[in-house]
Design a protein that fits this description.
Layout lengths: L1 H18 L9 H9 L2 H14 L2 E9 L2 E12 L2 E12 L4 E4 L3 H5 L4 H9 L35 H8 L9
Antiparallel strand pairs: 1-2, 2-3, 3-4
Helix pairs in contact: 3-5
């Protein structure tokens, strides 16, 4: 039964995310793009990174062809004191790839303020490659459609329709 409850909560959250959106906090195109794509929960995390971007300043360190190295300095508050923390962000202008040495995007699947600072500085309009499909509103979560012997949902019209369809292939077609 706990699994059913989890599925129901996740399904309800997906429905709410798909049918509503949170207000933007700033007037950047990039925020509207993420608002359209992200689930509401992930968009809240993204907005927190935007708020914290205020404390970041970027300076070009080196440029070699289409590759640029930037130093992003963030003024962070630790207890009652403020100090500067330095990050290095690398940009490939040809393919639009951004990489920060902190590797937080790779670990947490959300753009952190260091890379957001650079995306906004470079006026990136379509950041779709930075929106992992796991957090997209329109993602169909297949585990919510799995038959469960603990409930009697097979009688629902949706379940009956799914039973009549051929099995989905691994490729998602």
């Amino acid at each position: 039964m706990p699994l059913n409850s989890k599925w129901e909560k996740e399904s309800k959250a997906d429905f709410i995310s798909f049918n509503s959106s949170l207000a933007c906090i700033i007037d950047y195109d990039i925020e509207r793009r993420f608002q359209e794509a992200y689930t509401n929960a992930k968009f809240k995390e993204f907005q927190e990174e935007l708020r914290r971007k205020v404390y970041c300043q970027a300076v070009l360190l080196a440029e070699e062809g289409s590759l640029g190295t930037y130093e992003v300095v963030e003024n962070v508050k630790i207890n009652d004191t403020r100090r500067d923390v330095t990050y290095h962000v690398y940009i490939n202008e040809v393919d639009g790839q951004f990489k920060c040495l902190c590797r937080l995007f790779e670990f947490r699947d959300i753009l952190f303020r260091q890379v957001l600072t650079m995306l906004i500085k470079k006026r990136v309009k379509n950041p779709s490659k930075y929106i992992p499909s796991l957090w997209k509103k329109d993602l169909k979560r297949m585990h919510l459609l799995v038959k469960n012997h603990l409930d009697d949902s097979r009688a629902s019209p949706q379940s009956q329709r799914l039973e009549r369809q051929p099995r989905l292939r691994q490729s998602g077609r």
